[in-house]
Every structure is written in structure tokens, then in C-alpha cells.
Automatic annotation (TrEMBL):
Protein name: PmbA protein
Ranges for region Disordered: 115-151, 187-211
Superkingdom of origin organism: Bacteria
InterPro entries reported for this sequence: Metalloprtase-TldD/E_C, Metalloprtase-TldD/E_cen_dom, Metalloprtase-TldD/E_N, PmbA, TldD/PmbA_N, TldD/PmbA_sf
Homology family: Belongs to the peptidase U62 family.
Compositional bias segments (type: Basic and acidic residues): 125-134
Pfam family for this entry, one: PmbA_TldD_1st
Domain Metalloprotease TldD/E C-terminal: 227-442
Domain Metalloprotease TldD/E N-terminal: start-end pairs: 22-85
Domain Metalloprotease TldD/E central: 113-219
């Protein structure tokens, strides 16, 4: 969508009585192919072009969005937004980002857009190759399918305070999921990857083979008795342990007083040597952007530095409420006021491989899948259903299922030991993580 169109919408909002305004546009095209048991199952194509408007009348705000961008529809959008704002309750912290914090060009070149547009036939070939490789495992008896997709998006923001920015991004993905059986039990396994550039993806054959291996490896899973033992979270799911941290250090949670870390700023939360960084300017990063969703200049942050919590994550509204400065972590869609999110979040690797962590722990649980997490946001009490492998004498012994692990995250973070096996699979990544003792509920 053209910059001039958004500038016209902002100008129209001011003329209609808004004191300030911002307009965002999102254009997206996507193509996804699913195959199952060697047959084409689904072709999904998406083309969208949407407009969002946020206006302020004093300390009152409203947001509206729509997909009709004709002049008449834009006029109604503006009229509706200003009318809604006049009726909204006052919010003493509402407002656009401070003008002095806005990003100024030229913006960093992040290499987020691959112009390739694979045909449906090419994507079907990739999806089929991934599923075929998974089904080639002799223990695989059924398939949940293989898929491949390609998408591109434009995001543009224009504000009445003079900001105008746009970035163009692409994404490509491959996935396979299959079921293994031995006549008595069935277990599923999957693998998948996404990347900004198509050439950065692994081969579909390697994706499929890993999915098949994981399904077959789970056969014979058994229940175990309840116990307390060392627990290792595999790198593929380890970030699920860190997700609650991000919610707990977000400005809105701190402002509401509903965070189990509300008194921990500049305190030792993790052990020494643990570092977590958030980098919006990672080249080809799946979470990268040249500015945040309020137009604020963003940058790399060391959220956890040598185990110490260094900052809250803030947008402009939560920063005002806390009498602090925004950290450039505003995140929004077309409708609604901005929230807070990270970009490319990475728990930095430690020195030991997963095998060495297992050897050091001796006896315990390796978690490879998780479901149904439960968190008390005020206390940090946390539990999750999971499956994985029991290990003894420093080696994997047998697969286990239908278990729950539980603990308090403040205590768990303090005892967490990162492994060395960091893999970049998405916008949030961690190596395998060892905690020396957790409550495990089994049969």
C-alpha cells in the first residue's frame, strides 16, 4: 500500500477531529500445499490487503481496521474511528510514541525478502519429498502429511508525528508428520523448519527422515512412577520454559503488578553465565524488523546478562505508566492498541552437549514434547504435561509418556544449565536446558 494513501488517512483523521493518529497497512500473499499418503490433499492460497487506523482525541483512543481501501470506505473508517475515540474512556498513558524516539532512516538492511515465488507444483514436490522420506522409515505405518509453503508480506506505518517506514519480508517452510506403530502402540513424530530465504531451508528429505526417526523412536513408551529427578528440556521445546519469563518481564504485567518477577529487576534471576538476548536486527531473522510497531528505533538487548535481569520489555504506554522509557518492543496487528513482544530471542549456548548433560545428570528425564502448560503468573508455579525418554547411567534407556513435571520458575531459572546444542528454528531459540531436580508425576 502506498505511503501517500496512509498519509492521506492520517490527515483525514486529524481534519475530522483527532489530535493525533497512525495508520498501518498489511499486504500478504501466501501459498501452502499439503499432501498425505502420497496424494495432494489441500492447496491454500491467500491474498489480503488491509488497513488499520488508531486515533487519539485527548487521552481517549480507538482503533479500527478494514480490507476495503476505496476512498468511500476510507472516509467511513476515519469517521468511525474518531467517533469511537470520543466515546472511549480516558487513558492517562495513551498516545503515540515520543517523537524523539522514532526511528530515522536509512533503516538497517536485514535481508528479509527472497523474491522467489515457487509454483504450486514446486511446493507440492517439496511436500511430497518430505512425506516420502518420513514414510520410508520401516516402522512408520501412517502419515499426518507433508507440507510446504511460501509467503510474502509488506508492513507500512505512518504517524502524524512524522514517522513513515515500510519493510518487506518473505517466509518459506517445510513440515512432515507421521505415525509409527508396532502392533500394540502408535506414536507420532514430526519435524519442520521455516526460513526467510528458501535456500536457507534444510532439504525436504532431511526433514522427513527426522520426522520418521522421531516417531519410530517413541515406540514402546511406558509410564513411570512419580519421582523427583534431573530434567533436561530438549532444544526444540526448551523455549517453552522461557516463554513465561517474557510475559513476566513485559511492561504491562509489571504495571499491573501481576508478575512473579516484579521485584527482580537488576537481580540475579538465572545462574551466572546464563545470557538471553533479543536482537531485532538479525539478518534474515524470522522475528527481525527495522523498527518496532510504534515506529520506535529498536536495538539489540541483553535481557539476561550473566544471570541478571537487566530490563523490562516496554512499549510507549507501559513505559509512561512505569515512568520509564520505551525499549522498542511494541507489537501490534491492524486492530487494537500495541502490546509487547520480543523479536529474535536467543538463550545463548553453554559448553556441554546434550549427551554430556545427560552423562552429568546420570539418571532422569529428557523431555521431547510438551502440552497443556499451567502457570500462576503471580507466583511462578508452573506445570506441564510431557513425554520423552528416561535415561540411566548417562544414557537413554526407554521412551516415557503421560507424565507431568512441575516446579516454581523462580527456583527453576536459578538452577538452569544451558547446553551447547543451539539451533535456530524460529524467532525464539534455546539449547537443551538441564535442571538438576524437578517433581515428576507419573502413574
Amino acid at each position: 500500500m502506498e505511503e501517500s494513501l496512509l498519509a492521506d488517512v492520517v490527515a483525514a483523521a486529524l481534519k475530522a477531529g483527532a489530535d493525533s493518529a497512525e495508520a498501518v497497512s498489511a499486504q500478504r500473499s501466501a501459498l501452502g500445499i499439503n499432501v498425505r499418503l502420497g496424494e495432494l490433499e489441500e492447496v491454500e492460497r491467500e491474498e489480503s490487503r488491509d488497513l488499520g487506523l488508531r486515533v487519539f482525541v485527548g487521552q481517549r483512543q480507538a482503533t479500527v481496521s478494514g480490507s476495503d481501501i476505496s476512498p468511500a470506505a476510507r472516509a467511513k473508517l476515519v469517521e468511525r474511528a474518531v467517533a469511537m475515540a470520543r466515546l472511549a474512556p480516558e487513558d492517562p498513558y495513551a498516545g503515540l510514541a515520543p517523537k524523539e524516539r522514532l526511528a530515522k532512516g536509512p533503516f538497517p538492511e536485514l535481508d528479509l525478502y527472497d523474491p522467489q515465488e515457487p509454483s504450486p507444483e514446486a511446493l507440492e514436490e517439496v511436500a511430497r519429498a518430505a512425506e516420502d522420506a518420513a514414510r520410508a522409515n520401516p516402522k512408520v505405518t501412517n502419515s499426518e502429511g507433508g507440507s510446504a509453503s511460501a509467503s510474502s508480506s509488506h508492513w507500512r506505518l505512518v504517524t502524524s508525528t512524522g514517522f513513515s517506514g515500510v519493510y518487506h519480508a518473505s517466509a518459506f517452510s517445510i513440515m512432515a508428520s507421521v505415525v509409527a506403530g508396532d502392533g500394540e502402540t502408535m506414536e507420532s513424530g514430526y519435524d519442520g523448519r521455516s526460513a526467510r530465504w528458501r535456500g536457507d531451508l534444510p532439504t525436504p528429505k532431511s526433514i522427513g527422515e527426522e520426522a520418521g526417526r522421531r516417531a519410530a523412536q517413541r515406540l514402546g513408551a511406558r509410564k513411570i512412577a512419580s519421582t523427583t529427578a534431573p530434567v533436561i528440556f530438549e532444544n526444540r521445546i526448551a523455549m517453552s520454559l522461557i516463554g513465561p519469563l517474557i510475559g513476566a518481564i513485559s511492561g504491562p504485567s509489571i504495571a499491573r503488578g501481576t508478575s512473579f518477577l516484579k521485584d527482580k529487576l537488576n537481580a540475579q534471576v538465572f545462574g551466572k553465565g546464563v545470557n538471553i538476548v533479543d536482537d531485532p536486527h538479525k539478518v534474515r531473522g524470522l522475528g527481525s524488523s527495522p523498527f518496532d510497531d510504534e515506529g520506535v528505533q529498536n536495538r539489540r538487548w541483553s535481557l539476561i546478562e550473566d544471570g541478571v535481569l537487566t530490563t523490562w520489555l516496554m512499549n510507549s504506554a507501559s513505559a509512561r505508566q512505569l515512568s520509564l522509557e520505551t525499549t522498542g518492543h511494541a507489537s501490534r496487528g491492524l486492530a487494537g492498541a500495541p502490546g509487547v513482544s520480543t523479536t529474535n530471542l536467543t538463550l545463548q549456548p553453554g559448553a556441554k552437549s546434550q549427551a554430556e548433560l545427560i552423562a552429568d545428570a546420570g539418571k532422569g528425564l529428557l523431555i521431547t514434547s510438551m502440552f497443556g502448560p499451567s502457570l500462576n503468573g503471580n507466583t511462578g508455579d508452573w506445570s506441564v504435561g510431557c513425554a520423552g525418554f528416561w535415561f540411566e547411567n548417562g544414557e537413554l534407556a526407554y521412551p516415557v509418556t503421560e507424565i507431568t513435571v512441575a516446579g516454581n520458575l523462580v527456583d527453576m531459572y536459578g538452577r538452569l544449565i544451558p547446553g551447547s546444542d543451539l539451533e535456530i528454528r524460529g524467532s525464539a531459540n534455546a539449547p537443551s536446558l538441564l535442571i538438576d531436580g524437578l517433581a515428576i508425576a507419573g502413574r
